[in-house]
From TrEMBL:
Superkingdom per UniProt: Bacteria
One GO BP annotation of this record: cell adhesion
Pfam families the UniProt entry points to: Curlin_rpt
Signal peptide: 1-19
Family assignment from sequence similarity: Belongs to the CsgA/CsgB family.
Bias kind Polar residues: ranges: 69-98, 132-151
Gene Ontology CC: pilus
Ranges for region Disordered: 23-55, 67-107, 132-159, 294-324
InterPro entries (UniProt xref): Curlin_rpt (IPR009742)
Keywords for this protein: Signal
Name this polypeptide is given: Curlin associated repeat-containing protein
Length: 324
């Protein structure tokens, strides 16, 4: 076994007195390497590079409560098989980035998990290769951003959760984006608070995307959900509860399914649902409960099916099939 590292096998740093401005770097080349970095304090940075098989990296940067400890950064780059990276940040203004791959043709079984608690955090995960898995969760606070990009292989799975409400309200103006290119990918995003935006873009076959905003008890206000799928036999599901929401599903291909559900508009009036399916043999279903809702369904070519259910006042439904 060949192992080359700035810090051999395991690195553990704990700021016992809440030290500030910590900097740690971990570089490993070889098999069965393992790295652990623990930092407590503000303005700390943790970096890691692992090249080889069966690598693991865990980085933790501390405090939270009233969102103490700020402006920390954790960066991980892994190439090879069976890599695993976990990064946890607890304060505000933190940044976490994970890149796994691209050591073609051996990019298998990668895993990335990032958890951030606080405000104005940013989490980015990029996975290149097959059988990748990514999970990102941002708990409380405002202006958090989560991005997942998966490409270059089969069996990818991405899930992002942004929280509060029920009813801590909170989590204002958060954004979650998942982009997947390849086959057999799956995407899920849950958002609670208000002014949230969720976007899922999938290019390939057998992809699935599910997005939930609100669900409810003061969850969701002025939220926007978008799913864009290219390929065949895709399933897109979006569920929104409460206030000024907009849900859009765009699918191009054949044998795709799109389902959208919007609940009571608690604040000001006005949910809107839009489905656009290009190709043959699609199924579209729109469900709206509340007031001032509008559902538009556009389906092209042949053998498409549309189902619209509206309960409440001032609802409008437009269905157009065999459109150019």
């Amino acid at each position: 076994m060949k192992t080359l590292s700035f810090l051999t096998v395991t690195l553990l740093v704990a700021g016992a007195t809440h030290a500030q401005n910590n900097t740690q770097s971990l570089s490993q080349t070889g098999n069965s390497n393992m790295g652990t970095v623990t930092q407590t304090g503000s303005n700390s940075s943790a970096g890691g590079t692992q090249v080889g098989n069966s690598n693991q990296l865990t980085q933790t940067q501390g405090e939270a409560a009233g969102y103490g400890n700020t402006m920390n950064a954790a960066t991980t780059s892994q190439r090879g098989n069976n890599n695993k990276a976990t990064q946890s940040q607890f304060g505000s203004g933190n940044q976490a980035a994970i890149t796994q791959g691209d050591g073609v043709p051996t990019d298998n079984a990668n895993e990335a998990v990032q958890l951030q608690i606080g405000s104005q955090n940013r989490a980015t995960a990029t996975q290149l290769g097959g059988t990748s898995y990514s999970y990102q969760e941002q708990r409380g606070g405002s202006n958090n951003e989560a991005f997942v990009t998966q490409s270059g292989g089969d069996g990818n799975y991405a899930r992002q959760v942004q929280h509060d409400a029920t009813s801590g309200y909170g989590t204002n103006d958060n954004r979650a984006i998942i982009e997947q290119t390849g086959n057999s990918n799956r995407s899920e995003q849950d958002q609670m608070g208000n002014n949230n935006r969720a976007t899922a873009i999938q290019n390939g076959s057998f992809n699935q995307a599910s997005q939930t905003q609100g669900s409810n008890f003061d969850g969701s206000y002025n939220s926007t959900a978008l799913i864009n799928q290219l390929g065949n036999s895709n399933v897109a599901t979006q569920s929104q509860r409460g206030d000024n929401q907009r849900a859009t599903i765009e699918q191009e291909g054949s044998l795709n399914t799109a389902i959208q559900s919007q609940g009571n508009s608690i604040g000001s009036v006005g949910n809107r649902a839009y489905i656009d399916q290009d190709g043959d043999s699609h199924y579209a279903r729109q469900i709206q409960t509340g007031v001032g809702n509008q559902a538009d369904t556009w389906q092209g070519a042949n053998n498409n099916t549309s189902d619209v259910s509206q309960v409440g006042n001032n609802n409008t439904s437009v269905v157009r099939q065999n459109h150019p």
